[in-house]
Amino acid sequence: MLKLSLSLLLVSLLAKTSFAQEQQQMTQKDFDSLHWILGQWERTNTRSGTSATESWRKVSNNRYEGIGVNTRGSDTTFVEHLRLEFKDQKIVYVADVRENATPIYFRIDEITKNGFISKNPDHDFPKVISYQLNANKMSAIISDGKDKKMAFEFVKRR
After folding, report:
1. How high is the pLDDT of residue 158?
2. How far from 72 is each of 47, 48, 96, CA to CA, in Å?
3. What span, in angstroms and rounded, lies between the C-alpha atoms of 146 and 29?
4. SS3 2
């Protein structure tokens, strides 16, 4: 009987721990730690004859807005409106592209000193978007959370 009680207690504790991790609450300090993304970024791994930039600005204490633009010569080939938002103890990465009827929300569930990981398991692709800062370079990786991934490398403009 004691073994059964201990087993039930262990299972209960594991379930509560798992639930708590899923419900991790973010703070204003967590959001503020993402300030490194602000500024002008130029992509370094584009195809020949094309260029791409990502520009981020602070709109308020709980919102950063970005825009990603790809060009070929003088033609704009792709535009993506981006946001980082802090609301209700959650931080979300929002991507709004013409190909989608509505903006796509990715919940940030991991923040490090130099990066973050955001996820939306219900989206077709990508399901995971991560950003990582290394000196004046930034990597953005989109993936399906498994094998398929694309890396975008940027350098900060001076």
Report:
1. 78
2. 9, 9, 21
3. 31
4. helix
Q: Which residue has the tokens 């890396």?
A: 151
Instruction: Please check whether residue 127 is in contact with residue 121, taking contact to mean a CB–CB distance below 8 angstroms.
Output: yes
- The pLDDT value given to residue 46: 96
Consecutive sets of 10 residues in the chain, 158 residues long: mean pLDDT of each? 43 38 81 98 97 99 98 97 98 96 97 96 97 97 97 95
Question: Hunting for tokens 């802090």 — which residue is that?
Answer: 86
Kindly state the helix (H) or strand (E) to which residue 17 belongs, with its residue range.
Answer: helix 2-22
CATH class of 25-156: mainly beta
CA atoms within 13 A on the CB side of 126: 24
